Amino acid sequence: MLLQTAPAPGAWERLLAVLKEWDFAVFLKINTVWTGAFGDFLMPILRDQRTWYPLYAFLFIYVIYKFRWKALPFIIIAGLTVVLTDQVSSTFFKNYFGRVRPCNEEALRGMARLLLDRCPSSGSFTSSHAVNHFGLATFIYITLKPYFGKWGLLFFFWAAFICYAQVYVGVHYPGDVSCGAVLGVLLGGFTAWIFKKYFNFGNRKRGDLTTASPTV
What we know:
Elements: H1 11-33, H2 37-46, H3 53-67, H4 71-97, H5 128-148, H6 154-168, H7 174-198
């Protein structure tokens, strides 16, 4: 009688196993080793979306002041960008992959730290914070690049800090936020393309720091 044995894992399965091992290792470094009292205080605040409300408010006030009624399509599509990124991540990716968050992972029990009051019950992949913030950062950078120039890159640093905080506090793996960032850039680029194709603010005239020539 031939002995029945489980089939050897294929290349794809081995690759996923290696990536998962690396993800766990980097997560534990960020969550338990590269830590300190200041980080333990700052990171839960940094990843709280309410912390960034003043930045959004300032941005919308700036756009309204500069472009008047032409700011309305920008605000609407910026809002749609947030809705799109959140739904794609939360409704599709989290439900499809069903990855357990590190704060709920049995293999990490007793090792991982959770710096929040509770561990969210939703899936871990992808990080909706990462998708949302990178999507909005991409939309803002592309649509307002003629006015912000290289300073617009700061929106990506802001999104990256939030992603790092998600890992630091123990609710996401590095792979969750990295893939979420890529997804956010793609979705934000798509909504920015729509805005520039059908609305746009136009290009700032050379030497003119206060006015633009919007096109509709």
